[in-house]
Amino acid sequence: MTGTIWILCLVNNHSNFTDVLFHLDHPDGPGNYVALVGTVGTTYTGPFNDGIPEPAMQYAGFTDYSSTADRAAGATHMLVVKIQMNMGGSTNDGCELWVDPPLNAGEFGLGFPIYSYGYADAFGAEFSGVGISFNKASALNHAKPRLDDIRISNGPNGFAEIISGLSPAPTRFTSAAVTDAVIHLEISDLTPGATNHLTRAGTLFDETWMTSWTFVASGLVTNWSEPAGNTVFYRVETER
């Protein structure tokens, strides 16, 4: 593949003990990947100082772990990559990474990438493909990480093609449980960057619903809990 290449995939580390690596220009370019890496007992523990997965990039053999943008383990996150082959007629290839960017304002609405490089012929004459690998801390039985919904396009409308059908899906509750007098809710199909309001009422017919939590989504899924009381109804609304 040549030209501008857009890549999107969904990643869930499931725990702080796992790494998810998405290799670029595989198998020809083993020195390039984007990743969400765990920070406890894994191959990439060294550069980090806390226990929450964070994004990383390897470009032309150089690995950058400098971002401290924590991404919650157990939640699904969206990786968006832009590759520009032979920028400006040179042999240098550009590579940029976003994690959980807003998608509702086009390419320019993505904001600044977490990582951006373009000083080397990282991918050769043509971009060959992608590969996947996972790491986890040895001798530990943790939930397996996942990588899903891989989309790649080098078409003239590549960005629009990779996000087609992703949003806006209705925000919804995907699980609810009560343990030790605390109610736990999982909220899914969030739009990263969008503001959401979790409201509650004593009956479905109440004219006034009270706001329990207002939050800006950082991923596609989040969790929330509060002490359980009498019968309560919840709903979630997303500003679009």
Could you describe the 3D structure shown?
The protein starts with a strand and ends with a strand. A five-stranded antiparallel beta sheet has the order 8-7-6-1-10. Helices cover 2% and strands 45% of the residues. The chain is mainly beta and 240 residues long. The chain contains one helix and 16 strands. Strand 13 (195-201) and strand 14 (210-216) form a beta hairpin.
Sequence-ordered SSE layout with sheet pairings:
Layout: E1 4-12, E2 18-24, E3 33-37, E4 54-59, E5 62-64, E6 77-84, E7 93-99, E8 115-120, E9 130-136, E10 146-153, H1 158-163, E11 172-179, E12 182-188, E13 195-201, E14 210-216, E15 222-227, E16 233-238
Antiparallel strand pairs: 1-6, 1-10, 2-3, 2-9, 3-4, 4-5, 6-7, 7-8, 11-12, 12-15, 13-14, 13-16
The largest sheet is: 5 strands, antiparallel
Structural class: mainly beta
Strand content: 35-45%
**Annotation, overall tally of beta strands:** 16
Mean pLDDT value: 83
What attributes characterize this protein structure?
240 residues; single chain; five-stranded antiparallel sheet; mainly beta; 1 helix; elongated
Compose a concise summary of this entry:
This protein has 240 residues and is an all-beta fold.
